[in-house]
Design goal:
The chain is mainly β and about 160 residues long. The protein has helices at about 10-15, 25-30, 145, and strands at about 20, 30-35, 40-45, 50-55, 70, 75-80, 85-90, 95-100, 110-115, 120-125, 130. It has a single domain (about 20-145), classed as 3-layer Sandwich (Rieske Iron-sulfur Protein). A hairpin with a 4-residue loop joins strand 7 and strand 8 (about 95-100). The termini are far apart. The structure holds FE2/S2 (inorganic) cluster (FES).
């Protein structure tokens, strides 16, 4: 029997979803960390939605699982505890504020730097949470800290 569908889907065979914990636990803690196919990820439960991303910030490898979640421009973001970069939970975009010096009102506007943090897929099945790593074929800045010598945070506190 093909329980996980891997016999039909070659991508699933190479990159199957990995069990990371129970729904009841993350709903209490609102975040958890996991290692998925040797990649460290953080999973957030925020306002009824799950989000998973590389655990180390694209900027300099800060521990995103220790950051606060705040809304910027109406978008929930994790704020990196090291230098306060803002990363959208839904898309992994880096947000920043900019001012147009030619605009007399000079009101800062939120802008996107594009996708900087790699986002992974979360699925829930029967109270269990699974993460499927993104295989989107683009170079994401957070890949640098998710692979090679930098990939493991020694202490998570
Ligand atoms: Fe995250 Fe610098 S390491 S903002």
């Amino acid at each position: 029997m093909d329980l996980d569908g891997s016999q039909q889907d070659p991508e699933m065979k190479e990159n199957p979803p990995v069990y990371v914990g129970r729904e009841v636990d993350i709903k209490k803690s609102e975040r958890m960390t996991a290692v998925v196919h040797e990649r460290e990820v953080v999973i957030f439960y925020h306002k009824g939605e799950y989000h998973a991303m590389d655990i180390r910030c694209y900027h300099s490898g800060g521990p995103l699982h220790l950051g606060d979640i705040e809304d910027f421009d109406g978008r929930p973001c994790i704020v990196c505890p090291w230098h306060k970069y803002k990363i959208t939970l839904a898309t992994g975009e880096g947000l920043y504020q900019s001012i147009n010096p030619k605009d007399p009102s000079a009101k800062p506007k939120w802008c996107s730097k594009g996708i900087k943090q790699r986002i992974h897929r979360v699925t829930v099945d029967n109270g269990n949470i699974y993460v499927t790593l993104s295989t989107d074929p683009f170079k994401c800045d957070s890949d640098f800290y998710a692979t090679g010598n930098f990939k493991v945070i020694k202490s998570s506190s």
